Amino acid sequence: MQLAAIANGASGRVCALEGLAEVCERLREMGIGEGVVVKRMSGQGTLLCLVGHTRIALSEQAAGHIVVELLPSAH
Hints:
Blueprint: E1 11-17, H1 21-29, E2 37-42, E3 46-51, E4 54-59, H2 60-63, E5 66-70
Antiparallel strand pairs: 1-2, 1-5, 2-3, 3-4
């Protein structure tokens, strides 16, 4: 499932980066790569995500390149 498709507040583990090599390379430079947990905090169009202790804003198009495995919510 793409990061752009998960609900606000949900987390996913990155399984793959798909798409243009330049976009995937830039995402990796930002700390978003295979095995990393990303939490979608808020947003539509521009998504605010939490990667580790860092907040990152991603366009919905960039988030569409990120394939995640949805993680169970911790309560």
